[in-house]
Design goal:
Layout lengths: L2 E3 L6 E6 L22 E3 L1 E2 L5 E3 L3 E3 L1 E4 L2 H9 L2 E7 L9 E6 L2 E7 L4 E6 L14 E5 L2 E5 L6 E4 L4 E4 L7 E6 L9 E3 L23 E4 L3 E8 L6 E5 L8 E3 L3 E6 L7 E7 L2 E6 L4 E4 L33 E2 L9 E6 L7 E7 L4 E4 L16 E5 L10 E4 L2 E5 L4 E3 H6 L30 E4 L2 E11 L2 E11 L13 E6 L3 E10 L2 E9 L6 E6 L7 E2 L3 E2 L1 E5 L15 E25 L6 E9 L15 E7 L8 E2 L4 E2 L2 E2 L2 E22 L17
Parallel strand pairs: 7-11
Antiparallel strand pairs: 1-2, 2-50, 3-43, 4-5, 5-50, 6-40, 8-9, 9-10, 10-11, 12-13, 13-14, 14-15, 16-22, 17-21, 18-19, 19-20, 23-24, 24-25, 25-26, 27-28, 28-29, 29-30, 31-32, 32-33, 34-35, 35-36, 36-37, 38-39, 39-40, 41-42, 43-50, 44-45, 44-46, 44-49, 44-50, 47-48
């Protein structure tokens, strides 16, 4: 509330701005905001309570082995990307990106460079698919286009291979025909154990890896076929009971074409299995568990997660599915759990209208006892809209919905009440304008104790880019003192974001942004740096940050509004480095546009004391005056100068690096004129 200054002239009122520990709130009328809350903010952060510029962005210098690869990468259709981490200490972490049906692998370094190679080989995906989904499982990146069979990229070996799935499986059958040593039956070993050498009436269509089904008993996977004696060795997948017998003449069936993952869409690697949506968007499957018998010795059986033999033996049979009334599957993610023995909890399957929790056993020996359906409702309201903008944040899941950003934890806590809403009402000036059919292309990350989500999607020839990022700062909750809720830093601009990614590179957490260039002509890679890395984008471009204040000069008695004239002001900053340009604007009452007040430039002038250098110590400016706004700008609707009104807001733009430490403003109470004033806009325009 404004304070009154006593003197012999007209009553004068003062109001102040200081810290902004409540962040930004554009969903509340500025008249109702507290002074420590910004009505709107761009390219800034309130970490540490005082407003300063956001962390810098750095353009990664990409190098290509061939000009043709460079052209195809930069001018193609961006479809999706992921981070991949090898388990071989001699192989570096990489970024994998799908562009126009080709897979490119980028190896970034700490100096701002990245080497790009084309790893597609003979396994290209659809060049026109608007979106591809990529995620890592063990040493493999799964690459789906929603049309063709998945492609598996070996992160350690750098090669690709397509799934051996075929659309119409070939069916085969024969009979058990043990012919050695007078044996007439095979004894069933325990699950996961290997059988003795066996013979069949016709083994010509058997290959290693085939799943043989003995009706009434269960299934075995062929682990070896002896080329000389034609003996077959199998590993028990689900047959039983152990130590019972299967006799000669028993029919066995198998098929080619359904061993590895089929064509699909989004997916995630959870509890040792790949959980993947099928192309219809309603059904989803689970792969075998890594280390299972369907894998190969070459990969120490970890590649079992690329096979789907166990999914076929669910009690009741078939795939999992979600209700058609809640929409197609948009995301699959693992729920965090406190149980350290698992590390992940149930699988969360997200659709636009609901999120389902999928409970399944971890132990493969009980997989065949699972009954379908096994889905329970975890969120029954507007849920997530995209795989890449559904993210894990500590023990919570945050997702972009039609309404804004939703929290799974808060939604479940408030399920019985009316508080089951988004956590982004503060972004009312930003998120409602997003084109809803493009939200599936959005992305989000947690980096540097912040949550970042893309906003403002626009579809162009190179893909769907986003005009900015909304940023949630978790630091107020990261303390041993009295914790406060996270706050919104506002809107971050200056990148045309295609996708946000995080990963660990050389033991350090890094955040990367695939983006379109300023002229939207080529695909680029940028990095979001830490707050302390630099004060400029690309170490040279000043960051332009701005904020809009709450309404100033509230009247003590709101029933008796006092008419005022904006008279003076001053602001103060510290940590001023280099050259900083300042622009201050104001607007009275409900005037729709900002009115320029004063603009000027400051620079740090305190030398470092080091001879021969042009560097300066960070400076501070405890008082930078604004003077009285000009009387010329006119409110032609109410026939008065714009510097007159009942309440005022201010907007401050700072281009360069400094920290806003506060402001002080003065207005004078003026009487209403006895007669109507002369028109301040004598020339009528139409």
């Amino acid at each position: 509330m404004a304070g009154q200054v006593q003197d012999n002239g007209p009553p004068r009122l003062e109001d102040y701005l200081l810290s902004f520990e409540n962040g930004m709130d554009s969903g509340t009328n500025p008249f109702l905001l507290q002074p420590n809350t910004m009505s709107f903010a761009t390219n800034g952060t309130v970490r540490g309570d005082f407003f300063t510029n956001r962390p810098p962005f750095r353009n990664i210098n990409l190098t290509f082995s061939d000009p043709g690869i460079q052209s195809a990468f930069q001018t193609g259709l961006f479809q999706g990307a992921c981070y991949a981490r090898p388990d071989n200490p001699n192989v570096q972490e990489v970024l994998c990106v799908s562009i126009s049906g080709k897979l490119y692998v980028i190896t970034p370094d700490n100096a701002g460079n990245g080497a790009v190679v084309d790893a597609t080989g003979a396994n290209a995906q659809s060049a026109t698919a608007p979106i591809c989904w990529l995620w890592q499982a063990e040493n493999f990146v799964i690459w789906n286009d929603g049309v063709s069979g998945p492609v598996f990229y070996d992160v350690n070996g750098g090669t690709t291979v397509r799934s051996d799935y075929i659309g119409t499986p070939l069916q085969y059958s024969t009979k058990l025909a043990i012919s050695y040593g007078g044996a007439t039956a095979m004894q069933i070993p325990s699950i996961g154990q290997q059988s003795l050498n066996l013979n069949f009436a016709d083994q010509s269509n058997m290959v290693v890896g085939d799943i043989l089904t003995f009706p009434g008993y269960g299934s075995f996977r062929i682990s070896n076929i002896d080329g000389t004696s034609t003996y077959v060795t199998m590993i028990n997948v689900s047959a039983g009971p152990p130590l019972s017998y299967i006799y000669n003449g028993t029919t066995v069936t198998w098929q080619h074409g359904h061993r590895q993952l089929p064509p699909g869409r989004m997916g995630a690697y959870i509890m040792g299995r790949n959980w993947m949506s099928l192309t219809d968007g309603r059904q989803f499957i689970a792969s075998d568990q890594a280390g299972g018998s369907s894998g190969t010795a070459t990969y120490n059986y970890r590649d079992a997660c690329l096979y789907i033999t166990e999914n076929s033996y669910l009690a009741g049979g078939g795939n999992f599915s979600v209700s058609s009334v809640t929409g197609q599957i948009r995301a699959i993610i693992g729920l965090p759990t406190l149980d350290a023995s698992l590390g992940q909890g149930p699988v969360l399957v997200v659709t636009p209208k609901a999120a389902y929790s999928c409970q399944t056993p971890v132990d493969r020996t009980t997989w065949s006892t699972v009954t379908n359906p096994i889905l329970t409702i975890a969120m029954l309201t507007n849920a997530g809209l995209g795989q890449n903008n559904t993210i894990s944040a500590n023990s919570d899941i945050l997702m972009r919905s039609i309404e804004g950003i939703r929290s799974l934890k808060l939604t479940r806590n408030d399920f019985a009440g009316w508080g089951n809403t988004t956590i982004s009402n503060e972004l009312e000036r930003i998120v409602p304008s997003d084109q809803q059919n493009l939200l599936i292309f959005g992305s989000g990350i947690v980096f540097n104790n912040r949550g970042l989500f893309t906003v403002g999607p626009v579809s162009v020839a190179n893909g769907v880019y986003h005009q900015g990022m909304i940023v949630l700062d978790f630091s107020p909750a990261s303390t041993l003192k009295q914790q406060q809720p996270p706050v919104w830093d506002g809107l971050w601009l200056n990148l045309n974001v295609l996708q946000l990614l995080t990963g660990t590179f050389n033991l350090g957490e890094r955040a990367y942004v695939f983006a379109l260039s300023n002229d939207l002509s080529k695909i680029e890679l940028h990095e979001i740096r830490y707050d302390y890395d630099s004060i400029y984008d690309d170490a040279a471009t000043p960051i332009s940050m701005s904020f809009e204040s709450a309404v100033l000069f509230h009247d003590e008695d709101k029933r008796q509004r006092k008419f005022k004239e904006l008279f003076n002001g001053e602001i103060f900053v510290d940590d001023l480095q280099g050259v900083v340009n300042f622009e201050v604007s104001y607007k009275p009452d409900q005037w729709p546009a900002w009115v320029p007040w004063f603009s000027w430039q400051e620079c740090a002038k305190q030398p470092t004391g080091i001879p021969g250098t042009a560097n300066y110590q960070p400076g501070y400016k405890p008082r930078m005056g604004l003077g009285q706004p000009s009387a010329d700008p006119c409110d032609n609707c109410n026939n008065r100068p714009l510097r007159q009104g009942y309440r005022f807001q201010v907007k401050i733009v700072m281009t360069g690096h400094c920290r806003f430490m506060g402001a002080r403003f003065e207005s004078k109470v003026i009487p209403a004129p006895t007669f109507a004033p002369m028109s301040c806009d004598p020339i009528c325009t139409t």
